[in-house]
Design a protein that fits this description.
Layout lengths: L3 H21 L5 H21 L15
């Protein structure tokens, strides 16, 4: 099980890499930039939920009984 600090660090690293791909190196389109950020944010949230650091949103398929 990862600590919250490990999850946050991994997320920050991923976001910085996505931003660099768009802003600094211009390797991806504006649409891909937003798609990748959204995907990373969803992954981050799912990992926080899976490790017990965050409750699933009401009505989600991950909601606990």
């Amino acid at each position: 099980m990862k600590t919250k600090e490990q999850i946050n660090s991994e997320h920050n690293t991923n976001v910085l890499a996505i931003r660099a791909s768009y802003h600094e190196r211009q390797e991806i389109s504006h649409e891909d930039y937003h798609r990748q950020l959204n995907t990373e944010n969803e992954r981050y949230e799912a990992e926080l939920i899976a490790n017990g650091f965050m409750e699933p949103p009401p009505g989600s398929t991950e909601a606990r009984d």
